[in-house]
Inverse folding.
């Protein structure tokens, strides 16, 4: 692709109500979208609000909507997303309240993790005490592999911002919280299965998922929340049909 | 937004949430099970249509097959029940997402609509049997 000498960057300014401000940013080799945002804040407009911490794809705090798609800005090279005339459009993450400019409020997102019983509840030590012995969980066991598949989530909310069902129903727990619940349902050391399945059932939970898999498609960690949700549905289907709940 | 927040409690899931979630899960299970029934029933139904019209279609021919036949009665009663419930639950889901029609009242209305639709079908099946 021909490299433009500068980028035309439209940046969301304001909260829920607001408008785009345009900035000209010099184009550089190996430039990430986060570099562009940082340049704008340091050189052009110090009042711009945005969020980042690690800059290397570990913390998940720099996620924004880049040209209509939720991404980690630190791991997104400008040349991969910019169009031929050098235009970039940056918004805060969708499906969340906007604090200011590019910073979304993730509180509803994390509240749903706790609503989905995303906390480990040790079976052997219900009051949080350290169990006497180590639990032996064979790495090749089916449950361990199911848990492993989803355990690397860092809670960046890219899946949540990409989910149509969240947009339609703001009670819906969303892919990340349900993915977390599924890893715990498969954790043989966990004792909260029944409660957790109750918490993730119904219209606010896994049963609203349409399996359109935007979450799986967009997850920067290549996790598969869609399959995790299918797992929850399967568990609830048999438990309900066989009267186990 | 802060008004919708719930503190993370380690105690049991809120009782009314659990009752609601269970009812919703039952609707979902009913829809999946009826989908499985319909997958079979529609095939039987289509094969029946294709084979039945070969010799010309008449009321007498249909009645000669269905009258007094418990197997066809059972088949069509199941078919009608599955179709009525499956359709109504599907419409419920569409209405809840598209126009925000949600809640217990709406669910009961959809269930009634489903059972009524099924009732009409079952009445027709009995009519063909008796």
């Amino acid at each position: 692709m021909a490299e433009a000498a500068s980028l035309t960057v439209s940046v969301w300014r304001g909260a829920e109500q607001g408008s785009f401000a345009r900035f000209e940013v010099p184009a550089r080799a190996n430039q990430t979208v986060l570099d562009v945002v940082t340049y704008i804040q340091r050189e052009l407009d110090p009042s711009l609000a945005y969020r980042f911490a690690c800059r290397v794809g570990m913390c998940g705090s720099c996620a924004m909507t880049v040209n209509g798609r939720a991404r980690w800005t630190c791991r997104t090279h400008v040349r991969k997303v910019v169009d031929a005339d050098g235009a970039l459009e940056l918004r805060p993450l969708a499906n969340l309240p906007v604090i200011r400019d590019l910073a979304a409020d993730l509180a509803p997102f994390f509240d749903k993790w706790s609503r989905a019983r995303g906390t480990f509840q040790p079976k052997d030590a219900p009051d949080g005490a350290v169990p006497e012995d180590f639990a032996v969980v064979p790495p090749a066991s089916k449950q361990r592999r199911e848990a492993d598949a989803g355990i690397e989530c860092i809670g960046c909310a890219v899946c949540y911002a990409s989910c149509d069902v969240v947009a339609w129903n703001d009670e819906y727990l969303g892919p990340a919280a349900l993915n977390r619940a599924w890893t715990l349902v498969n954790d043989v050391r966990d004792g909260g299965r029944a409660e957790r399945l109750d918490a993730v059932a119904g219209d606010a939970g896994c049963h609203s998922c349409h399996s359109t898999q935007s979450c799986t498609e967009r997850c920067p960690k290549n996790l598969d929340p869609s399959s995790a949700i299918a797992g929850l549905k399967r568990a609830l289907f048999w438990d309900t049909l066989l009267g186990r709940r | 937004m802060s008004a919708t927040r719930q503190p993370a409690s380690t105690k049991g899931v809120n009782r009314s949430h659990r009752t609601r979630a269970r009812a919703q899960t039952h609707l979902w299970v009913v829809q999946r099970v009826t989908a499985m029934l319909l997958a079979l029933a529609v095939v039987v139904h289509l094969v029946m249509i294709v084979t039945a019209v070969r010799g010309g279609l008449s009321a007498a021919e249909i009645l000669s097959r269905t009258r007094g036949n418990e197997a066809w009665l059972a088949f069509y009663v199941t078919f009608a029940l599955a179709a009525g419930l499956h359709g109504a639950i599907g419409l419920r889901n569409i209405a809840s997402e598209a126009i925000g029609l949600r809640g217990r009242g709406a669910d009961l209305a959809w269930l009634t609509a489903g059972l009524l639709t099924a009732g009409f079908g079952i009445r027709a099946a009995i009519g063909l049997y008796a």
About this structure: Residues 21-129 of chain B form a domain with the 3 helical TM bundles of succinate and fumarate reductases fold (CATH 1.20.1300.10). Chain B has one domain: 21-129. The longest helix of chain B spans residues 15-52.
